[in-house]
Design goal:
The complex is a heterotrimer of chains A (144), B (119) and C (244). By secondary structure, chain B is an alpha/beta fold. Chain B contains 4 helices and 5 strands. The longest helix of chain B has 18 residues. The chains are: A alpha+beta (144), B alpha/beta (119), C alpha/beta (244). The complex binds adenosine-5'-triphosphate and magnesium ion.
Chain lengths: 144, 119, 244
């Protein structure tokens, strides 16, 4: 789907087993904490990663989550970037999937993607049926 | 019943469920089974879930908690949640998640008062 | 290394500093640096020296100094020293950030006081324009405070807020929902018709928020429903047959 060079990232997480979901959110939490995000933002970031990891596990069976610290925008704000990608079935109607309340899973709220979009500062998704899905999100640390 | 996922405490005729472990998906599922089982076995009239030790609640955990509460309701049992951490509350609210069928309380004491009032 | 620096001291200082004051500073620095090279905790001491130097010189001057030492002194550990310089600069940046953050926290607190007016009641008078950053910040503080005081009721008074756009309105609604998740109730007061309109359009759930016309009626209502701790019933009423 998209070219990724794992060396460009601080953390690379392979999602394959159910337990990887909890591991990935723990890793994201620790990383965001080290980046000095507020406790509320640390929780938002960990929750977003939990959602992304679960979607990979549930719909694509396996995939990767990449996390890095970077500087973004003209004011060079400290930013966390999270990329989740898989080579799973893809999403047929992306717009519908991110609008919230839509789910193809029986026991779900269908609020994962919509929730991530609201928790983070930027949200970008690319998906192609039969090829896979990539979600890139960012959150800036507040300018003090 | 297999070993309990979470040790529970019977308080009057309420079941106190203090969650002190990381909630991975498998654990959440087993916890649901355990709670429903205990309601059935022990003649429980109210459930109090204490999540003060839980630092991430995502959409799936929320769903299962609400689903459990819905099932408990069908068995004549109210569910109260207490101890939601402030940053978890902010996250859930921002995601637009509502804990359907669950009453929120400020503390364990508050939860008991609420259940008492409902009787 | 130590000897080489001391030996070249006069020349180095001449080239590094213009004024007499600066010369003294650089001389101290070089002597200390020479000394640090032969000490056990060399790395730490050099980093500390770099940091101190940056009190009177800027980053450029430090780098120029390192370059000069490199050109004059054979075997000078150039790369290593540059690395230390970068670390020292980074340390200073972080310290500045922390200080700024503390200042900002104080400012934010001054701008949105959270007052515990009664055992179980918090009052938050919002004043001035709310941008989304300030709204987020306030939400974090208020949630923290609501949880730590276990307040039963949070009164949010928006009398002093001239306008609430849809974004900030959205934040407010989220904040109210978050407070409800803590098990506390929200009373909204001082609401202007325009703001009410915005909130309704945004789908504020009036079952979730109690609206009162002014602060006085909000307080009366809050005190009416907030139980006094001393009134708490100690024996609880039980159903039949469950108490042996
Ligand atoms: N990585 C993915 N690969 C394929 N389909 C996906 C992927 N992520 C999401 N989807 C599709 O998008 C829908 C919406 O996803 P979203 O995460 O918002 O909700 P959900 O997973 O159904 O429920 P929830 O996350 O609330 O438990 C899913 O039901 C699924 O059909
Ligand atoms: Mg999902």
């Amino acid at each position: 789907m998209i070219e990724v060079n794992p060396q460009d990232y601080d953390i690379v997480l392979k999602i394959k087993d159910e337990s990887d979901i909890a591991v990935s959110r723990q890793m994201a939490k620790n990383f965001a904490q080290k980046m000095n995000f507020s406790l509320a933002d640390v929780t938002k970031i960990a929750t977003a990663v939990s959602e992304l990891a679960r979607n990979i596990y549930r719909y694509a069976k396996e995939g990767y989550i990449y996390i890095r610290e970077k500087e973004a925008g003209p004011e060079k704000a400290i930013t966390i970037e999270i990329l989740a990608c898989d080579e799973g079935p893809g999403i047929e109607n992306v717009e519908l999937a991110v609008s919230g309340g839509y789910t193809t899973s029986e026991r779900s709220l269908g609020l994962g993607l919509a929730g991530i979009r609201r928790l983070m500062d930027s949200f970008h998704i690319e998906s192609e049926v039969g090829k896979g899905t990539a979600v890139i999100v960012e959150k800036r640390r507040h300018a003090y | 019943m297999k070993s309990k996922v979470v040790p529970t405490i019977k308080l009057y005729d309420y079941l106190l469920v203090p969650i002190q472990i990381e909630l991975d998906d498998n654990t959440v599922e087993r916890l649901q089974m355990q709670i429903l089982h205990e309601i059935h076995e022990n003649d429980v009239r109210g459930i109090i879930i204490d999540v003060s030790m839980v630092d991430v609640i995502d959409s799936y955990i929320s769903f299962v908690l609400s689903e459990t509460a819905g099932m408990a309701k069908a068995m004549g049992c109210h569910t109260v949640i207490c101890g939601i951490q402030p940053q978890v509350a902010l996250t859930l609210a921002q995601m637009g998640i509502r804990l359907k069928d669950i009453i929120t309380a400020r503390s364990l004491e508050d939860a008991i008062d609420i259940l008492d009032e409902l009787d | 290394m130590k000897e080489a620096i001391i030996y070249n001291l006069k020349e180095l200082v001449e080239d590094l500093a213009a004024s007499d004051d600066l010369k003294r500073e650089w001389e101290d620095f070089l002597v200390n640096l020479a000394d640090a090279f032969s000490s056990e905790d060399k790395d730490e001491r050099i980093k500390e020296l770099f940091k101190n130097l940056l009190d009177f010189a800027d980053a450029d001057a430090l780098i120029r100094g390192i370059e000069l030492l490199n050109s004059r002194i054979g075997g000078f550990p150039f790369i290593e020293m540059l690395k230390f310089a970068v670390e020292a600069l980074d340390g200073i940046r972080k310290e500045k950030e922390t200080r700024l953050r503390e200042l900002n926290d104080i400012l934010a607190e001054l701008a949105t006081p959270i007052i515990r007016i009664w055992q179980d009641i918090l009052l938050v008078p919002l004043i001035g324009t709310l941008d989304s950053h300030r709204a987020q910040n306030m939400a974090e503080k208020l949630l923290e405070r609501t949880a730590s005081t276990r307040a039963k009721i949070v009164i949010v008074d928006v009398t002093g807020v001239p306008m609430i756009d849809t974004i900030v309105g959205g934040f407010l609604i989220e904040m109210f929902n978050a407070i409800k998740l803590l098990g506390s109730d929200v009373i909204l007061t001082g609401i202007k018709p325009e703001i009410a309109h915005t909130l309704v359009k945004l789908g504020v759930d009036f079952n979730m928020v109690i609206i009162k016309r002014d602060l006085e009626s909000a307080l009366k209502y809050a005190i009416g429903i907030a139980p006094d701790k001393s009134d708490r019933k100690h024996g609880r009423k039980r159903g039949d047959g469950d108490e042996e």
